[in-house]
Design goal:
about 45% helix, 27 strands, single chain, nine-stranded mixed beta sheet, four-stranded antiparallel beta sheet, alpha+beta, about 1200 residues
Length: about 1200
Amino acid sequence: MNTSNIKKYAPVARKQFRDAVMQKLTTLGIEADKKGNLQIAQATDLGDSVRYGQFSLDKSLASRRERLVKRAEKQGYDVLVEHIAYTWFNRFCAIRYMELHGYLDHGFRMLSHPTLEGGFEVLDHVPEVADALGLDKARLVEMKLAGDRDEELYRELLLAQCHALHGAMPFLFEAVNDEIELVLPDNLTRTDSILRGLVDTIPDEDWEQVEVIGWLYQFYISEKKDDVIGKVVKSEDIPAATQLFTPNWIVQYLVQNSVGRQWLQIYPDSSLKGKMPYYIEPAEQTPEVQAQLAAITPSSIEPESIKVLDPACGSGHILTEAYNVLKAIYEERGYRTRDIPQLILENNIFGLDIDDRAAQLSGFAMLMLARQDDRRILSPGRGVRLNIVSLQESKLDIAEVWTKLNFHQQVQRGSMGDMFTQGTALANTDSAEYKLLMRTLALFTSAKTLGSLIQVPQEDEAALKAFLDGLYRLAIEGDIQQKEAATELIPYIQQAWILAQRYDAVVANPPYMGGKGMNGELKEFAEINFSKAKSDLFSLFIERSISFCHQNSILSMITPYVWMFIGSFEDLRKEILRRHSISTLIQLEYNAFAPACIPVAAFTLTQDSLREYKGTFIKLSDFKGVDSQSPKVLEAVGREKCSWKYIASNSLFDTLPGNPLLYWVSQELSKTFNYNNGFEKLGELCSPRKGMATGDNNKFVRYWNEVDFSRSSLNIDNEYSWVPYNNGGEYRKWYGNIDRFIYWKDDGFAIKNFKDENGKLRSRPQGLDLKFKEMLSWTSLSSTYLGVRYYPNGFISDQNGNFLVPNNRFENDIYFILGWLCSSTANRIVKMLNPTMHILVSNISNLPIPMDEVTIKEVCDITRRCIDISKTDWDKYESSWGFIRPAIITSQIDLKSAVLLEIKNCKSMVNELKRLEQRNNDIFALKFGVSDLLGYELTSDDITLNVKEVMLSTEIFSSKLITELLSYIVGTQMGRYSLDREGLVYAHEGNKGFSDLVEEGAYKTFPADEDGILPLMDSNWFDDDVTARVKEFVRTVWGEEHLQENLDFIAESLCLYAIKPKKGESSLDTIRRYLSTQFWKDHLKMYKKRPIYWLFSSGKEKAFECLVYLHRYNEGTLSRMRTEYVVPLLARYQGNIDLVNDQLKNAESGAATTRLKKELDGLSKKFNELRSFDDRLRHYADRRITIDLDDGVKVNYGKFGDLLADVKAITGSAPQEE
């Protein structure tokens, strides 16, 4: 169904209903202060009424108000508001559904009017409605005729309707004198009533199916869910955190392949099969398996004996489908249609939940289905007993309740039942019923936290049923106290009876919640009772639901599919495979489960472990999007063979390490995991490890260009502070993602001893026995591909960059292992072993690897060449410490020729790597018999070179080559690079040692700037600004003869992609425009918001901007900036303003005057901005601020207030004035 209207309405409705309830509670003197503390107004007796603050209440209603006060004191104000708001929302939704389906006895609409927008049909038929609801017709008609009492009249009719529905649905509509009636919102008949959204926003056609009620609930609590998700969840918030409404087609699959299969395995020729589109026909079995099935399959079954349980029933979507399937079974057996509903509700369907509201909806949904087939099901006196309950916590005064119950008639009481006196010893405490009651209630002290996970002994089932029947009898026939006590006890005994039973079909979409979200009580309970399944709440439910089954039961669930693959669920997985058979399974595409956007699988288990039983598996991974899933399931069901349907048995999974459910693996491929016949386990050739966790990467990890490079292990052999750090990174193969340092002074003492305020070690210094060794690494989190890279000696690895170190069993083993891991076959197997986004150490360790000398030699040769190409690619960019200089600075006579040569070389690199990878893939595809990967043509996604962009657009690539050249030129101006030396020249701290390099002649060909301050202006204010020096650089490298030609080429290339062309602009002006408007943005992107050239800016008018090289910044930099640039520029602006003023006085035309005024306005704005900047600059210059490069750019960049540009983008917070 289309849920867009519901999604729009329900969250808004929650706020409206809460506000309305709070307003109503205020009139009753029940409020909360700003901190949420309960405020109860004192009562003032006024005779017939009671005053609470400004509001009065009829004294006859005071007892109800006191019940509300007690609830508020017990539950808390916010919980009370939430409960009352939802109770009324629930009731209105139920009445709305019933009125549109004609289920209200009087036949008129209660909340709307069929023809009058905003009207109420019941107000047009007051006499008829009054009769139907048993009201004083004459009095109500008089109220209607008064003309001004419609609101009062409507409230009375509405409450009477709720009272009338109490008989059939006491769980949803309370009895007369319910205190919640006091909080029925006001102004219900007004045009802005809270009823209007329910009626007007959701069209009538959306109410056709009863599932609308479930969707309303899902979206009603959606904001509450957002508030609690990702945190440790309190018991009262578990429903909101875990509530999911299961899509209809999945519900059909779950029920049809459990309840339906129960019938069909005994009566295979039943017509029921034709009514179940998602029923999956069992695969053809071997004669041996057929004989085993025949031995355990009952010869017959009666409809009334089929028991179906949903242990987390929510709003009843699964039970609704179960009702439909059971109804078809009853009809096939010839039962009368009108007899079927009550038989199903009382004999077949059972539901449990911890959420009172969801259980109310579930019961309502069942009765609405029953009402379709039995018009009298809601009639007073039918007394249908639903077995759908919300689990309640036992907080009773047992002594008082047991005495009142007088179950064995041990106390003779008068007709008024008032003989009970305090202090009387309890009678019959040695009776079976009392003992049963005591041990049962003890189980439910935390029912709202543990829910259906609570285990009630099966041997108590019969005794509980007998006790429950006795309580039902006393609730009807007993004296006043017996009725009261029986009514109190029935919910506890009924829920215990349901938990004690065994069911033919257990069907569920259980709650999902990882261990981090579990509160302490739930976590401890899981550890003690479900140790194999403790990783997630859904897995607890799998194990618990299995115990609800008997020998011939079928368990049917939809859960996250991680249990099928990952190591933390291995024990549970093995237990399932040891004791059960997987009859069917549907694995959805990763993002196709719309309610949660998590990867899920729906499956059915039988309780017999037949090792060779062939289950049917449907894999939807290749079909993207929510809408494609259901059609592809139906297609697979309807076809004997299709490429996404597989047949597999438990014995297949036994061959795989960790027993992952790789149902799509071929027998040939699965045999390689035997690690024989030329295959070995990769973990035998190397040591795969998980990298370390620093406890705070922001504190200990930096991009390499942020810190003093001279203090890194790449520059000195000992007493270093920083060492290369493998932090994982984006998908890349062969070589790369080398851009971080970790603080490792004193052998990492600070990290190894990094503790929280309680003295607990925050870091996990693991894998350090292999630190600094030559290794291979892969990013642990990857949504698509396995990208493995070579790292030379000298690195430490992060937990995001799992790694392995070869055992040196044979020469060049590291290259062979890398070649294998970078193959398409290895990628496929890894993703089979773990189809989640995490690539674990165990996944790599368990890989089979072929071992023969011919293969090893060829693969090693290929791998070396792939590493060389990828390293060349990585080192082409400034982000690498292996960068030397741009490749286009060559002996070519002009820049254009150099660019064309580089484009040619880059294309050649891409094609060569593609050829090598193709051959590598074919080698391993042949070895493993993966025929579909043989000859597979690689796409651009398979090649992980940065320069592959050249294959997409030479124009864009050419433009980027020029922007990278300009970045390098700025670097030579700063002294970071030099035409006289290769690679990095200066990246120390505080300008220390820079003058020594100058004296050595390090910058002889193209001198570096004297102070590391480069004006970046949109006009030619300074002789040494960036643009002027770019021109000087081009002249120096390519000569005066080709200067203009090269400047033209630079400008044309920039306009291909970096900036838009501007008509009539000179080449140098185009370059200046790029540098003043776009260079800083590109620099931020290149250095990942950790810039090394800092942009000091006067503001949006750009009166003054300059770049400062962070490695040359010192405490005198700001003073020099002010005296050498800002103060002189102020004078020049003032001079220009004076000049324009003089020109204005002598202007000879209106046009000239207008132009000069505009120019003057612009100069004045810049002058004023610069003067303000100068004031702030002087303030910071006087402070002589120093920076510690070890702190990183993010910290240091924030020390200069708003003198710098884009402070928030870099530091994460707005600039602070100091």
